[in-house]
Design brief:
Length: about 180
């Protein structure tokens, strides 16, 4: 299983199984990285410019994969835990710790520099299980009871904030006090 630089598990054998589309890919199949960040890797940018910035991975005529691209980056955009399915629930103007955390699947191997960032979302509870045990992201897992309780507390506060109370009801309640 893949490991972090500290030696803890990331919960997968192959991070590319969880990789989505590269964040640098435009809707028409071009590489935004080569265009926007030419100075970071001029050789790469020149090769993409020659091909009109076309991404070689999305070209069906080529056999390249995301692992072949030196600037591949994939970030999961779904706002739920990929392991147990817990939904994100953020309240506006609330500084509480989020229920979901980004989890990095790809790290440098054998002292190599990290070149690919592959991230998914895990709830805090699954995140700690993956890093501190043999838990895998692909495990058939249900949300932890503490996770469900935290989610329900946030939903309750959200419903309280959204509840409508007319001025007549508010004044009537104040008069009785």
């Amino acid at each position: 299983m893949e490991k972090t630089p500290r030696g803890t598990s990331v919960g997968v054998d192959d991070p590319y199984e969880f990789a989505g589309v590269c964040v640098h890919l435009t809707g028409d199949g071009r590489c935004r990285y080569a265009f926007d960040h030419y100075e970071h890797d001029p050789e790469f940018a020149r090769s993409r410019a020659i091909d009109d910035y076309e991404c070689p991975v999305v070209d069906p005529e080529r056999d390249e994969t995301w692992a072949d691209c030196p600037h591949f980056r994939s970030r999961n955009r779904d706002r739920e835990c990929v392991r147990c399915g817990l939904e994100a629930k953020r309240l506006a103007h609330d500084d509480e710790r989020p229920l979901l955390e980004e989890h990095h699947l790809s790290y440098a191997r054998d002292g190599e520099e990290l070149s690919h960032e592959i991230t998914v979302y895990l709830c805090r509870w699954c995140h700690s299980k993956v890093h501190t045990s043999w838990a895998r992201i692909t495990d058939d897992a249900a949300p932890d009871s503490d996770a469900i309780a935290a989610l329900e507390q946030r939903r309750g506060r959200e419903q309280e904030e959204a509840a409508f109370e007319s001025a007549a009801e508010r004044f009537d309640r104040e008069d009785r006090s």
